[in-house]
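hey can u check if this looks right to u? its 360 residues, i copy pasted from the old doc so theres a chance i mangled smth
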Amino acid sequence: DTHRQLENQAMPPIRSRCLRLLSTSPPPSAVSYVAGVEDIKAASGRIRGVAHVTPVMTCSTINAMYNKRRGGKEGARLFFKCENFQRTGSFKFRGALNAVSNLVEKRPANELSVVTQSSGNHGQALAACAQVRNVPATIVMPHTSPSVKKAAVRGYGAMIVECEPTDQARDEASEKVVKERGGVLIHPNQDPDVIAGQGTIAMELLEQVEKLDAIVAPVGGGGMKEEGIALWCKSVNPSIKVIAAEPKAADDCYRSKRANRRLANEQPPVTVADGVRTSIGENTWPIIRDLVDDVICVDEEQIMDATRLVWERMKLVIEPSSGVGVAAVLSEDGAKILGDSANIGVVLCGGNVDLSAIKW
């Protein structure tokens, strides 16, 4: 078995080419979203030199597994965008850094404080970015958040306020903190600057890997990967398939796409993938509706099998939320939806694992 890192290439200026999409979806330039291509370009400039350009890796064993799943056809390759190597251990650092940096451009840091709600990755990313920019931070976290993520948030100097593990409780607690203590609320997935920051994943990946046919990424609240990635990909090359992956236990995105309207998770999802337990939001739903091509759901066993596979064969520490995307690609539905796609990007969204709690 082999895996290798693709060499990072310098990123030349990229011209936006708003091409015509499939007839079922309007081009990004024709619809008003909360973030767009120019916002992603601006985000790239703000985070350059602070956020890492994360590596892309491949694995011959996983390539063979995928090719076998699609009927033994040879030649397809998977390219893993390793956001587990990003600062604070997840892609969330990109959006948080862009949001905090944009605020500091407009107001002195000594007049600012920031607040967010997070199950962990965005919380520690915002805490770290606030520390970099000398801004106080308060993070609202469900009491069920992994202890390793709580410890990281405190380690970056932020204050934690705990709440119940529901979307409503998180919203109410963060609004209460803003009202009582002041501060600017930076939502983990609905803030336009956060969405734009996450779009830089696609900017990098399309420079690092030529001729990608598809990108698969986990989806939770939606500010990440799927929305920022979809905005960039569908403007640069609308033929690239953008596929969302989510646990069957938290399948609000899948159900929303099928119903053509936003549907939230009715109960707090019980899934090992703690980073994707939240429902898609009002700001990200139009992007998902128009620009994400399809959604693949996987069960808990598939998620853990995929996570273990990456640990064992690629020697990469990823969290189960990252395993969701890998599981989706290796599933029967993945082979059907991806079809003849030969070069597929898979976003490994993070590597913040509570080792004391993980069970194989």
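The chain is about 40% helix and 15% strand.
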